[in-house]
Amino acid sequence: MAPASSESVSLSRSAEALDAIQVEDQRPKLPGRLIIVEGIDGSGKSTQLDLLRKWLTNQGYLVMFSEWNSSPIVKGITRHGKRRQLLSPMSFSLIHAADFASRTYSQILPALQSGAIVLADRYVYTAYARDAVRGVNRDWLRRLYSFAVEPTLAFYFDVPLEEAMRRISIGRPELKYYEAGLDLGLHNDPFESFRRFQGLIRQEYECVVDEFGLLRMDATESLIHQQQRMREMVRPHLDGAMRLPNPPTADAWQVASLLGHNQAERRPLLEPGE
Amino acid sequence: MTAPRFYGASPPGVDDIALPGRLIVIEGTDGVGRSTHISLLKEWLESRGYAVVNTGLRRSELAGRGIERAKRGNTLDPLTLNLLYATDFWDRLERQILPALRAGMVALVDRYIFSLMARARVRGLAAEWVENLYGFALVPDLVVYLDIDIEHLVPRVLGSTGFDYWESGQDYLAGPDVYGNFVEHQSRLLGQFRRLAAEHAFTTVDARGTVAEVFRSLCEVIEPVVEDMATFTDIADGHLLQLPQIASE
Predict the structure, then answer these.
(1) Which domains does chain B have, with CATH numbers?
(2) A14 or B117: whose pLDDT is higher?
């Protein structure tokens, strides 16, 4: 599932499950763009995606944000399973696949069909890395997620383990059971377990990055530098993506002089004489 | 002794355990009489000294109630629904069925992966994808398929619960014709079940007869599967496996 070279998003070749559902149109054309970020906890991927979202919305692009493990239908079950510690490697994997399927059908596909830009914080590669560390068969995982839409651009934020740990230890006073990978029995201390778990995920990511040609970002660079590089890579893919004729907040931003350096990126708000 | 055998790759954590129990699955469409026969079979087996565990769809601690909740809404696509059922199924396999088999019990399972596969297929999911998904399932010692035709099914459903939204395929078939949709959906399901029965060598039992007739046929096909367990469990007393005495109707 290498990032697509064409301007619109295509379904992965093995997406038979999806094709079969879309009986009326065997291979739906999806005029939108799908941009996803991956990386271990503390890699800064969410920060970068959020900055990218601000840049895109400021230019009037229609942006839809989809976050891992956020489907309203599935979330309750996952929360229940985590709270009661009912999740085994397979149920953990299956419930996240259900979440992903639900988001694909109710958010991602409709948005791409309408021409919007979909930003996803974590995508199938998170499952490939994390579930494989929990011992789930890699080939089974790839077939399971074969219904996923192939991203236009997939970024991997590469950060050394110790740097990620340093960032996490500042921001998080406490680690949750599954977050720390305590179900794997790697170590009794949550932080040590978390460090080993993230280390294993990072190793697995290395294989996934090569296999699917994810775009590697040096997550130790300054935030502004990373964001500039990201925008440079995204810009060529924006031609023809759906834009709001009048960005709703643009006037307000202009009044408040909040446009900053993004102003240059935007189309003129008002035509002369209007 | 049942060696753990899976349809696909072994799931993590369960590939190396001895399973002296028996996994017996009763498959069949909605309203065919599965739950009636499972209660009868449980009685029959227990009265003869076999410890029995029974389980069925949506009875997992993890996802059972979540699925009920999700089905009440109106935003459920077939793929998500199937994955929720897969989660529910796996949780029951791992935490109800496998422990029972490890302990040498008979696990009597009301619907297995085949009902879930049939439902997925009639709703348009690709066969290859569905088969890969359920590759984590343990291969049962016996799958009994209760076969029926639409003519015999309709009066049974009307006599019990009536036409249910999901059992009538209302979620994917068009129009307000509930009866028409029920017939269409169940006919498609029966087609899938018969295909699966041939593919996976189910033992087919004709479910059109009386409860007594069907029960007797079930006992006959289950008997040989549990027979030799007595030698492991030391409860053989010579009368262990008499077929039930039921007055014919």
Answers:
(1) 22-233 (3.40.50.300)
(2) B117
